[in-house]
Design goal:
Largest interface: A-B, 65 and 65 residues
CATH class of the largest domain in chain B: Alpha Beta
Order of helices and strands of chain B: HEHEEHEEHEEHHEHEHH
Distance between the termini of chain B: 48 Å
Strand content of chain B: 5-15%
Structural class of chain B: alpha+beta
Shape of chain B: globular
Number of domains of chain A: 1
Strand content of chain A: under 5%
Largest sheet of chain A: none
Helix content of chain B: 25-40%
Number of helices of chain B: 9
CATH class of chain A: Mainly Alpha
Number of strands of chain A: 0
Number of domains of chain B: 2
Oligomer: heterodimer
CATH topology of chain A: Formate dehydrogenase/DMSO reductase fold
Strand order of the largest sheet of chain B: 8-1-9
CATH architecture of the largest domain in chain B: 2-Layer Sandwich
Bound molecules: iron/sulfur cluster
Chain lengths: 406, 288
């Protein structure tokens, strides 16, 4: 296919992209200044990390091979990105059109989360240049859960890219390409949900062999299922919170459709979160009773577990239920925030806090690990903002898209 | 190895095998039968630390300086030392215990490794290959004995652990520690032979040993076996690992992967079609 057949004029596209690269709003704002400083410091620290080794910037040790770059950036970040597949399931499989207006922004968010947070994995690898080994196939460790997760990350990023690509094509005005890409959506959605099921649970399965190293209140052979189920409300809570922020920040980019549906979407999501949280709580209790874990409650870790269960699972479950019943928008958002905090707590518990709870020298992240994590988050937000300001993510698709239908 | 083919076959036959999938579906024959192994008799060890010294030499790690005060506290192997002696004292005697990689028969580290950098050789030793490793440290997370160590202060870090002197073995030699132990506290042989020998020693002088060979069953069996005069928990061995091989902890999950891949997409499609009739605006979703 030549570029003409696809209806692409390379020269004008090039010019268009150049013009779009220019900032569209004020450059010096509080947010931008803070973001710039954090990213700049992060960049310096990343150089330091590659020159001097991981030990120069992290507090990792022989006892704690994984810290917050894995436990927070990758494991928690990917759970939060679970909104994309959950929403795709609701819209494309269950056919609930209500959520259609926010599907693009959710998938975009998911995609960027994978690019940046799963990408953060590269920082954590001792020999990142060998990351091609499990990809090009000169050494497939197929019995490894990590192998599976790595492959699924990559494939899933591809499916999300396909799902979001019509928005790119609309932005560039590539009509034929858009039509073609749009035709791939359903296939990508189905593949995406399948891959998500596997790698969301796969992230939990990574910890299966750390059997005696994770406190029994958190270790269970069902970690994969717990991770999968919790990724649903983790992702949807993220959609709630992020949607509410976008609602303020990107007001001028928001189509009528998106603004108008905002409330009914919030309540719908609250209901789903409540139900899934309830299922999760039930699973957790089942494991607790079945594992006869009463003895563990009377300890520091037991208290932490109770805090997680009551404060960050049961409580948001109740909040969502009530907020849905009384149509209280504010409480939906509060529920979303608490649920997100609960997910952070849970993932950090499994990967860092309840991990070797018996160790004499406990791991605590260095300020540099936290700094670099923040730098990655800010970088993601900047890219997200850049895209939303330019492409039809929250805004309506260009008129020609509507005309081409039917 | 069996597991891998099993997963592949499973992928191929998919549905038809569904009922046979249970967690313990892995073959129960113990594959460690003909592995090379090491038997460490702690009752014979005099704590001379020759093994520590020759290990440093054999692995080109001479920069490390050994001190007499080393034995005062319990130590762990490190990126500087692949094996070492710890001293445990009780009322009657001093017990010296050598520490290194256990060379599990079905190692967690190798099954964790996504590049096969960690490899269980068919001869028995578990080795690490620099050109494959990407430094994810999943092997460290998974090893029940916390053996692999990582060079945190290097721009091109290695995973470091005992290899049972695999290269020397390939040339027909013995592991350095075995060859140089003046008290014959460490002996080398096939795993089955060493188990027989260990049992013989216990039977011959039941007063000198506890009736347990550490490593015979622990974590599915290891290629380093220990004899001791006191219960193993008293010399700080991990006695809570169970007798199942660690990779089995993930087989249930790995078995289910091909199933999900095969079953999920058609299931999702069917569901979508079923829902179409119910939700009247599904048509619009479709055409958007
Ligand atoms: S002891 Fe650890 S590093 Fe050694 S073979 Fe077993 S799992 Fe691997
Ligand atoms: S750190 Fe290297 S040897 Fe260990 S699991 Fe990762 S790739 Fe394999």
């Amino acid at each position: 296919m030549s570029s003409n057949e696809l209806g692409i004029n390379i020269k004008s596209t090039y010019k268009f992209i150049l013009s779009e690269l220019k900032p569209k709003s004020k450059i010096i704002t509080h947010f931008n200044v803070i973001a710039f400083i954090i990213i700049a410091i992060g960049a310096v620290l990343i150089v330091l990390r590659f020159v001097k080794g991981l030990g120069a910037v992290t507090n990792l040790s022989q006892e704690y091979p994984w810290g917050i770059w894995i436990g927070f950036d990758v494991i928690t970040g990917v759970a939060f990105a679970g909104g994309a597949y959950s929403l795709c399931f609701i819209v494309y499989i269950l056919g609930d059109k209500k959520y259609k207006p926010i599907i693009r922004v959710t998938v975009l968010n998911g995609f960027l989360a994978y690019v940046f947070y799963a990408g953060a994995l590269l920082l954590d690898l001792g020999k990142p240049w060998n990351v091609i080994n499990p990809i090009i196939g000169n050494s497939f460790g197929v019995s490894s859960v990590m192998f599976l997760v790595a492959w699924h990350f990559m494939l899933y990023m591809l499916t999300e890219l396909v799902e979001i690509s019509p928005a790119f094509a609309e932005w560039l005005g590539w009509r034929k390409v858009r039509k073609y890409l749009h035709g791939l959506t359903l296939g990508a959605v189905i593949l995406g949900i399948t891959l998500s099921t596997l790698h969301q649970s796969g992230l939990g399965a990574l910890f299966l062999m750390a059997k005696n190293k994770i406190h029994p209140l958190w270790y269970s052979e069902f970690i994969p299922i717990l991770f999968f189920v919790s990724s649903i409300f983790a992702g949807l809570s993220m959609v709630i919170v992020e949607g509410s922020i976008s609602h303020k920040v990107f007001k001028n980019r928001m189509s009528d459709e998106v603004s108008k549906s905002h409330n009914s979407i919030l309540f719908g999501l609250a209901k789903i979160c409540a139900v899934v949280l309830y299922v999760y709580l039930f699973l957790k209790l089942l494991l607790f009773i079945h594992g006869e874990h009463w003895v563990h409650l009377n300890s520091q870790m037991g208290v932490l577990w109770l805090v997680e269960m009551i404060g960050f699972v049961a409580l948001p479950c109740v909040i969502f239920t009530q907020a849905f019943r009384y149509r209280n928008e504010l409480w939906v958002k509060i529920g979303g925030i608490i649920t997100m905090l609960g997910i952070i707590l849970n993932r950090l518990n499994v990967s860092v806090i309840a991990f070797k709870w018996y160790a004499a020298d406990r791991y605590f992240p260095s300020w540099m690990e936290i700094e670099i994590t923040l730098a990655i988050i800010f970088l993601e937000i900047l890219v997200l903002r850049w895209i939303i300001h330019r492409m039809p993510i929250l805004s309506d698709s260009p008129v020609w898209v509507k005309n081409e239908k039917h | 190895m069996e597991r891998r083919t099993f997963v592949k076959t499973l992928g191929a036959i998919g549905l038809s095998t569904l009922p046979t999938i249970t967690k313990g579906a892995e073959s129960k024959s113990s594959p460690g039968e003909e592995f090379n192994a090491i038997l460490i008799d702690t009752t014979l060890c005099t704590g001379c630390r020759t093994c520590e010294e020759v290990c440093l030499e054999a692995n080109g790690m001479q920069e490390f300086e050994m001190n007499d005060s080393d034995l005062e506290k319990e130590r762990d192997t490190s990126t500087d030392q692949l094996t070492l002696i710890n001293l445990y004292e009780n009322e009657e005697n001093e017990i010296y215990v050598k520490k290194q990689c256990m060379h599990c028969s079905q190692p967690a580290c190798a099954s964790a490794c996504l590049t096969k950098a960690m490899l269980k050789t068919k001869e028995g030793p578990v080795i690490w290959r620099e050109d494959k490793c990407m430094g994810c440290r999943f092997c460290m997370l998974s090893c029940p004995f916390d053996v692999p160590k990582f060079e945190y202060h290097s721009a091109n870090p290695k995973i470091v652990k005992c290899t049972m002197c695999f290269e020397r073995q390939q040339k027909g030699g013995l592991p350095a520690c075995v060859e140089n132990c003046p008290s014959e506290a460490i002996i080398f042989g096939k795993r089955t032979e060493l188990l027989t020998e260990a049992k013989r020693r216990i039977a011959e002088s039941p007063d000198d040993y506890v009736n347990h060979i550490y490593g015979e069953h622990e974590a599915g069996g290891t290629c380093v076996l220990y004899l001791s005069s006191v219960p193993f928990e008293e010399i700080n061995f991990r006695t809570n690992l169970g007798n199942d091989a660690y990779p089995e902890l993930t087989t249930g999950f790995l078995y289910s992967v091909p199933l999900v891949i095969i079953l999920w997409p058609p299931f999702l499609l069917a569901m979508r079609n079923a829902m179409k009739g119910k939700v009247n605006n599904a048509e619009e979703v479709e055409n958007e």
